[in-house]
Amino acid sequence: MNLPPPPDKAPLLQEVTASLSAMPDPAASGHLRRFEDEAAHALGTAHAVAVSSGTAALHAALSACGIGPGDDVLVPALTVIMTVAPLRALGATPVFVDSDPATLDLDYEDAARKVTTRARAIIPVHLWGRMGDPGALAAFASEHGLAVVEDAAQAVGTVRNKRLAGTVGTVGCFSMKDGKILWSGEGGFLTTASGRVAEHARAFRSHWQPAPPGEAPLSRLATNSRLAAPLAALALANLRRLPDLIERRRAQTRYLLNALERVPGLTALAPAAGEEWNGFSPLLHIGLPSPRAFAEHLAQQGVPNSTGSFRLVPCDTRPPFPRPEQPCRGTAEILDHTLAVVLAEGDTQATLDHYADVIAQAAAAWAP
Ligand SMILES: *Cc1c(COP(=O)(O)O)cnc(C)c1O
Predict the structure, then answer these.
(1) GO MF terms on file (predicted)?
(2) Looking at residue 99, what is its pLDDT?
(3) Distance 51 CA to ligand 1 centre (A)
(4) Which pLDDT value is given to residue 261?
């Protein structure tokens, strides 16, 4: 098995050069418009709105769903702090929901126990590109009258039961930070079928100017979270390579998991039935003693991974939030036992061979 070389980068240089020759351009609209039109087309949604980060996309999306002070928003503890920060910025309260170690999907029994009369929205997070059951999500949201804001930052291209990640809910939020599959250095965008949500997001990213139809410009306080022109050019060029970028990540993940197939104590996590996973991060169950220490040891040995390198812990236990009465145990179990290797487009076969060697040797010698 051989890993093909990464897709050609020449188109990126062409688009960025074109955007530079039009700068400075306060309207900065050319590449941005084209990116939004083509992103909406590529994802099969009516609207896409580009912003400066995935965090900003979540912020604009939650604002467009009317989330504000006094509202509760259900969010899995199995996520990064970036999912939760924008809802706190809007004055809402996160209600952390557990996840099921057998599926990585939301634990809907826990969600049903925790849903309050103040709950207005739920944020499913497709962590590591893995997507929960869209039917279960839609049923839960409609039963409880919740808006669905998907955090699809890592999930571009994942499909489950023929539903594309980011197009299941009211709004889908994507990040284009380097390291995500579709990247522009920094950046993000949201997708929605709702013209009203898209107009709100366009106003919100630019201090309510232009305002949505029927409203006065600057009549509300908002943010500057516009995407800079050269980054919109990068985003556009990468969007046109998106099928190749997804195939690249899938091939890298297949390659590494294949190389680790017979390592004792490590078992690849398979996607669900009906899930076409984007392969965001090779995922392995760590069946060794002190599994989190093993992931940290690998990080020290130069194999970047979610828990070892980035100290990913259940979000309900993080210091900004009150200490939970009942911590999300399923989430802790998932994070303690999952090795999620962090990949980049430029990682070559030699990089992955090196990772595989380090992981196999560390597992064989592991005596914590
Ligand atoms: C990257 C990421 C974000 C935040 O995106 P930024 O562009 O870094 O602001 C949010 N949620 C998840 C799951 C992410 O991976």
Answers:
(1) pyridoxal phosphate binding; transaminase activity
(2) 98
(3) 13
(4) 97
Catalytic residues: 180
Residue 123 alpha carbon to ligand 1 centre in Å: 13
2 domain-assigned: no
Which of these, 113, 144, 123, 32, lies nearest to 75 by C-alpha position? Answer: 123
Domain boundary among 240, 274, 294: 240
Per-residue pLDDT at 128:
98
Query: How do residues 94-117 score in pLDDT, each as one tens digit?
Result: 999 999 999 999 999 999 999 999
Of 210, 240, 270, at which residue does a domain stop? 240
The range of the structural domain enclosing residue 335 comes to 243-365
Q: How far, in Å, from the CA of 149 to the mean position of ligand 1?
A: 14
- Closest ligand 1 atom to Cα of 125: 13
In terms of C-beta density within 10 A (0-12 exposed, 13-18 middle, 19 or more buried), how is residue 85 classed? middle
> Which stretches of the chain score pLDDT less than 70?
none
Distance CA 309, CA 303 (A): 8
Residue list, ligand 1 pocket, CB within 6 Å? 53-55, 79-80, 82-83, 125, 127, 151, 153-154, 175, 177, 188
Residues 185-226 have pLDDT tens digits of 999 999 999 999 999 999 999 999 999 999 999 999 999 999
Instruction: Establish if 106 belongs to a structural domain.
Output: yes
At residue 5, the pLDDT reads: 87
With the most atoms of ligand 1 within 8 angstroms of its CB, the residue from 52, 53, 175 to mutate is: 175
CB distance 280 to 155 below 8 Å: yes
Same-domain pairing of 176 and 37? yes
Integer Cα distance of 332 and 104 in angstroms: 11
**Which of 51, 55, 171 maximizes ligand 1 atoms within 8 Å of its Cβ, making it the mutation to test the pocket?**
55
Residue 11 has a pLDDT of 95
> Residue 101 contacts by C-beta under 8 Å, 6 or more apart in sequence?
330, 333, 334, 337
The residue whose CA has the least distance to atom 14 of ligand 1 is 153
Contact status, residue 136 vs residue 105, Cβ threshold 8 Å = yes
